Amino acid sequence: MRTYHERASREMRLERPSATVTPIMRKLVNDAHAMLARGPLDARQRAANARAYAIDHLDELHEQLRAQFERRGIGYHRCATAAGAAAKVAELLGDAKRVAKSKTMVGEEVGLTHALRARGMEVLETDIGEYIVDIEGRGPSHITAPALHLNRTRIKEMLERTGIELEDDDPVRLSRVVRDAVGAFFQDCDAGITGANAVVASSGRITIVENEGNVSLGASHPKLHIAITGIEKVVADEAGALAILEVLAPSATAQPLTSFTHFLADPLPGQQRHVVFVDNGRSRILRDPRYREVLKCIRCGACMNGCPVYRAAGGLSYGSPYMGPIGAVVSPLLWPDGRYADLPFASSLCGQCTEECPVGIPIHRMLLDLRADAVKDHHVADAKERLAWKGFAAAFGGATRARAATALTRIGLRSFGRAIRPPGPLRDDPRLLPDPSLDHNPELLTSAAARRDVIPEAAIAEPPPADRAALFTQRAAQLGVTVASSAEPRDGDSRLRATAAIASTGSVLLTGEAASRRPILAASRVVVEVDRTTIVAFPHNLQDYLGDGDALILTGASRTADVEKILVRGIHGAEEMVVVLGGEG
Amino acid sequence: MPRVALFDPCYMSALRPGDINFARHVLETLGDTVTLLDGRCCGQPAFNSGFRAEARATGRQLLKAGQPFETVVVTSGSCTAMVRHYLPPLFEGRRAAGAASIASRFVDFASYVAAHPNLGRLSFRLDGVVAYHDSCHTRRELHASSAVRSLLSRIEGLEVRSLAHEEECCGFGGTFSAKLPEISVAMMTSKLDDVAVTGARVLVSADYSCLAHLESGARGIGIQLEGWSLAELLSRALS
User: Fold this and answer.
1) CATH label of the domain that carries residue B190
2) Which of A138, A516, B98, B238 gives 20 to 30 Å between its CA and that of A435?
3) Is A19's Cβ below 8 Å from some Cβ in B?
4) In CATH, what number is assigned to the domain containing residue A215?
5) In terms of domains, do B201 and B219 share one?
């Protein structure tokens, strides 16, 4: 299947992605807007500024970062090509046999899993959605929800292919079955590979977001943690990283923050930590003023969530690791050999992608420029089409000619319009060419039927409590966290003291020893003590509490929504979380 | 009153000949002296297909025709967006500045009428029900949806029903509808579903291109639906 059109029509005919995707995405986009509307209202601007600063100072920030990594003992690697990056990761893995990999889009881009398997390593996709699409073998169909195109029945079929027996297709059961398989693998593997959402130049910390806990396990692998990411993912400082976090989860999944937000610092005792930065054409994109802003992208997927074309034909139609509107921009830029040159045409140019983008990338305008490039490079449009546009320009080269052409079109439509039906393969197309001679009938105005649907009035949200502790309590409760003034100790508790908390997101910040991932995941209940005087308003206010070492923001219990976007709590970690609120009140 | 030009977009003179007279009626009732511009194209079909030289050559004829006028009113949001946002950068150097200066005088019909100093003197009345399709280019490229809505709300006796998912594209997208017909039809069908549940049989929009696409689908499927331009609705509400 060489063209987007071929792939899309096949997907629509055989898989009907829209039936699963459209209702989910309509709800998600509404929820995401509501989440962003909770504020802060300048979050998108702040995130856009942080990303713009990063791409404007990329070399300088990488210099800083290299020095910080040296201080911390983190390996810094920069690879020019996709193949080079995969080879570098393989080299760093050395004689590792069993590798636990979590979700990384750059990993998809460089074909990492495939490359490592080809070298004889056993690689497990540990994200639940990735685990499922790995069985299917067609790749992820969404940037943050890889198995979005599969409903629960199909997912059950996939899992049964691997010999897992299932009583039913309950999303909780499906999610937990994968969780157990992944958890067992983590007991006995040689390394963890993760992506990275941002890498902080001023401090050398690695920011990663996740919901399930598989990144926690991979990043805390006792021997080796490798993160792979694009060179553009560096940010100047923690303020920049926090600015991105403030829009990333709301835009991507309508969550305030993901359950785990990591600020990984020094390697653990006895552990090696490396970051592999992939260029793979990014330096070239950076030099092109028409497209450099695309490197601001934070890979949230909001553009595809809102895209009617993505919803209709699904993510696999793009045939690229990067799908949706952002994929239609990034793919032809990363692979300029023409294989993705028709993706920019997979858009009605409605502009919803640009409107949704939280960092202000003019996506649909880039699609237009890429279309011109594709024509110029002769990657699209055959001789017939080229001639037709020459004819078009000639016809509109003078008013008389243009009037004649228009009149001919009109006469043609009047006389033959109804006789022309789409050719063979498109005979399903119900559209009839318009008849320009039809008059309107004003009686239709007064013969309307009653309205059969109800458009819900926008709910007027109650103003949030002004008191930070009260707001924190409300928001944490929305995430299923119990907030109390005390908690009786229980067996299996992990009892921790928070450094700070965030009111708007109901999150707690753990730093230093308290941020150790594995004890938290092993606990049957996480109890966090929060001093109410340390509650800040928004994520971006957290900067002063982050310190310089390891830090972890917990926002509700570990969870997944990889099966039909249905929330399942308690993946690699306790389902139950309690916050004990102390301090003067 | 200033002399204004009224541009009849190429696709409208082909698909809906005479519709421009509705716009002319409204402008003349507002007291404008109107000169008709036709036989031109903004170049959008070529531009959206990646044929920049052809788009520039085509759009240039429209800019030349618009040059003598203080204002060029366009009865299509999409063409207005093409002229204002995308045409000037196709020219280089001194020509770009000239193109930008002429392009800035182009205004969509809804915005022009909604801001007209004489609008308050007119009264609109039309009994019945319409559904409103908020076209993408009027909404996102021109930010003119509120102008359309303010005009619709001036028509006494008219009930305007909004569509569910009104931010979603109808699936036309110019050559998109011919290049990716399956996707275009899927989007169209979804939009027609939303129109059907409103119960309205007349769909109004500031962009007739969307309406032509939806009408052709409705006829093929067998749904009774007419697409009326905003100008037609306002003109009929005047008489």
Assistant:
1) 3.40.50.1860
2) B238
3) no
4) 3.40.50.10420
5) yes
